[in-house]
Specification:
The structure holds 2 protein chains of 2 kinds. By secondary structure, chain A is α/β, with parallel strands linked by helices. Chain A is built from 9 helices and 16 strands. A 7-stranded mixed beta sheet of chain A has the order 5-4-8-9-10-11-12. Chain B is about 45% helix and about 15% strand. The chains are: A alpha/beta, B alpha/beta.
């Protein structure tokens, strides 16, 4: 069986399982006119809009049996009568944990040698509902023997301490941060005229913490500042793209390509048990190759919820992955104030 | 002090009658209702490029707004809020109490706006001007609407009225804080979280009026879901969704169609979708709305969802037979819905609407009662 055939076979199996066990998803599929008996390709498996995770319990098991609940930050979710957060229930975390490691290793640790881990985000104990913190906890345990340090405590960014610790670091560094916290950190370094030169081959994992905030900063400017103030090369800045509603993550291929000396335009790639389609909003069908549309993810590790997710993120196909272009302008469907500018935070 | 010049201008304004201010504002509205008015053209451009409305949406939005701000409508509003609007100019006898009343607007109103829809910023300033207050506005930094363009047009029309009106940079929090200290009234629009934080900065002796998160719905009873009515009904509700690009507090968050009528809820949803497709949404928005309609069909109980919305309930478009309508209206009022209208009229609330269920200007003024 080819890789594609294996993916499809497993996708059908999980789809049938979820159709059977997840009543809300079953209703959705029936209204879409798609059931396990008439779906002829994995691409036809009905994708639940991300807002569904906010409004409906989407689980293949009674939610009171959930061992873990991840919630979206609340700024990225819209639609629905009650302003709330998307909720992802898990009946086990074994699959989730297993899904985190291979792509992380491939796209952030493709080289060898000892590495020190720094996390500019709250620890999993401090943010038990954050999938990002949980995921970084797994990385910390597996690759750093739990020695990595977290620099957000009680909602405070410990910027000075991070700067001092980074300055004293001898080994190459892995730094993980949301884009928002990173920008704050770099601004702080700039203000204090503090230039840190991290050891060669230090790397950054940044994730789209700007969603829903007004302070969009271009990636280019952000990575430029990283090079200037931290000495991390642009090739070693990797943007991670994950969603609370998914169990797998996508990464830029930049670092992987730089280490393996592959010359190509970088793109976002996920593990082999994921696929991403770009949907043309005009036709509701798959967009032509290279055209911009809404991303639709298929993630076979999402066994306990729904494997197909329709997002409101815009992107297009590049290489064997995709490029993320952010949200449609003015795209916020809202009640009176769901995404009002929160000026007090800016 | 920043308020020095402002206070001077306000004092001059205080000598004018409220009716003369309404007349001037009404005249300005009639200019804004003309498609080729230069300031209007500017505003349309702003709404299209920065607020991401389509041009047609922007035109309809401006028409709907300024049709409610004519001289006649402003006078109606003053009457509805004060009965005798001349209390804003002088002491007036009140028959019911036998006492003479006089109402003063706040000297300084600090308005803090949100970015989803531009109308509240214009209306809020106009209410303040009718009270002869000095108004300072802080616009949203993500989307500043067109209040500054409106104030430019006012400056051409009525310089004295425009003189005590100001806007401050959206991100200067220190300035905002210090102005809040000097205000008599803070009017804020935003998320409940934002309002909570603003409120912490407002001293006890400054009055605070917060307009927070609100949601609206539409309900269609089975007796009106009839084959011959269905397409026009769908067109009307589609217009409600379209007008503020599905992002206002009067945009329906959810449509409820009762099962058991001649037309099923699914068929009705199809019709609404078809009507939405005919309007000039962006392709992305239309796609989102399709998903929204799909999800909507999965959730059930009408009154349960209304109850869950609790204190955030705003407007309900109601289509039902005459007998049931009466009962439903009663029930909705009990639940805290503050406006009930027909489908198709959601985005055109009369100026006299009790926004968020309260008096507007009448709750902003302070009264003097003369019993002598």
């Amino acid at each position: 069986m080819s890789c594609e055939e294996k993916f499809e076979a497993l996708a059908f199996k999980i789809f049938s399982y979820q159709f059977e066990k997840n009543l809300n998803y079953k209703k959705f599929c029936v209204l879409e006119g798609k059931t396990p008996s008439n779906v002829s390709s994995w691409k036809e498996i009905p994708a639940i809009p991300a807002a569904g995770f906010k409004e409906l319990a989407l689980a293949t098991f009674p939610v009171r049996r959930a061992v873990k609940i991840f919630k979206t930050s609340g700024t990225t979710q819209r639609l629905g009568p009650i302003p709330g957060r998307g909720v992802h229930f898990f009946d086990t975390l074994k699959l989730y944990g297993a899904a985190v490691l291979p792509p992380f290793r491939k796209y952030l640790l493709p080289d060898s040698g000892p590495c020190s881990f720094y996390f500019l985000m709250p620890s999993p104990t401090e943010a038990p509902e954050s999938s990002l913190s949980y995921m970084m906890g797994i990385v910390n345990r597996s690759f750093a023997a739990g020695q990595g340090r977290y620099y957000v405590k009680k909602g405070e960014l410990l910027l000075k301490r991070l700067a001092t610790d980074l300055q004293n670091e001898k080994k190459k560094v892995f730094l993980a941060s949301t884009a928002f916290a990173l920008k704050t950190f770099l601004d702080d370094l700039e203000q204090r005229k503090c230039l840190i030169r991290l050891p060669a081959a230090s790397r950054l994992m940044e994730t789209g913490g700007f969603k829903g905030r007004s302070r969009e900063v271009s990636k280019k400017a952000l990575y430029g500042a990283c090079e200037k103030f931290l000495g991390i090369q642009k090739d070693y800045c990797v943007s991670e793209y994950g969603m609370t509603e998914l169990s797998s993550q996508f990464y830029d291929t930049t670092l992987h390509d730089a280490v393996l000396k592959i010359k190509r335009k970088s793109f976002k790639a996920g593990p082999p048990w994921t696929r991403t389609l770009v949907m043309d909003p005009r036709t509701g069908r798959e967009a032509k190759r290279g055209a911009v549309g809404f991303l639709r993810h298929f993630d076979l590790a999402n066994r306990g919820s729904v494997l197909a997710l329709q997002t409101e993120d815009l992107g297009r196909v590049v290489g064997v992955g995709f490029e993320l272009l952010g949200r449609a302008p003015g795209s916020v469907l809202r009640g009176c104030s769901l995404s009002y500018e929160e000026f007090l935070r800016s | 002090m920043i308020t020095g010049k402002l206070e001077e201008a306000r004092r001059l304004l205080e000598r004018r009658s409220t009716v003369s201010i309404a007349a001037s504002l009404g005249e300005l509205s009639s200019l804004w209702l003309k498609r080729n008015y230069s300031f209007r053209k500017k505003a349309v451009r702003r709404l299209v490029t920065k607020s991401h409305f389509t041009e047609k949406m922007a035109q309809v939005l401006l028409d709907a707004l300024f049709k409610e701000l004519t001289y006649a409508k402003l006078i109606k509003l003053l009457r509805s809020e004060f009965r005798d609007p001349r209390v804003l100019d002088e002491f007036r006898p009140d028959r019911a109490s036998g006492v003479r009343h006089r109402a003063h607007g706040p000297r300084l109103i600090m308005h803090i706006f949100a970015g989803n829809v531009p109308n509240p910023s214009i209306i809020s300033f106009i209410l303040g001007m009718l009270l002869k207050s000095a108004n300072i506005g802080k616009l949203s930094s993500s989307d500043d609407g067109f209040l500054n363009i409106y104030l430019d047009s006012l400056r051409e029309q009525d310089q004295a009225l425009a003189a005590p009106q100001r806007l401050i940079p959206p991100k200067d929090r220190a300035l905002l804080r210090s102005l809040i200290q000097e205000s008599d009234l803070v009017v804020a629009y935003g998320t409940d979280e934002t309002l909570k934080k603003i409120r912490e900065d407002v001293p006890l002796n400054v009055f605070f009026a917060g307009y927070g998160h609100r949601v609206s719905f539409a309900f269609f009873a089975k007796e009106i879901l009839r084959k011959n009515k269905i397409s026009s009904l769908a067109r009307r509700v589609a217009r409600d969704i379209w007008m503020m690009d599905a992002r206002g507090c009067l945009s329906p968050e959810r449509l409820y169609a009762e099962a058991g009528g001649e037309v099923s809820p699914q068929e009705f949803a199809e019709q609404v979708l078809r009507a939405l497709e005919k309007l000039d949404f962006s392709a992305e928005r239309l796609y989102q709305l399709k998903n929204w309609l799909k999800l909507g069909q999965l959730q059930g109980n009408f009154f349960e969802n209304l109850q869950a919305a609790g204190k955030t309930l705003q407007c309900m478009a109601l289509e039902a037979g005459p007998e049931r309508k009466k009962r439903i209206v009663e029930k909705l009022s009990e639940l805290g819905v503050n406006r009930i209208c027909r489908a198709g009229a959601m985005q055109a609330p009369p100026l006299t609407w009790h926004h968020d269920g309260r008096f507007n200007m009448a709750s902003w003024v302070t009264w003097t009662d003369d019993e002598t």
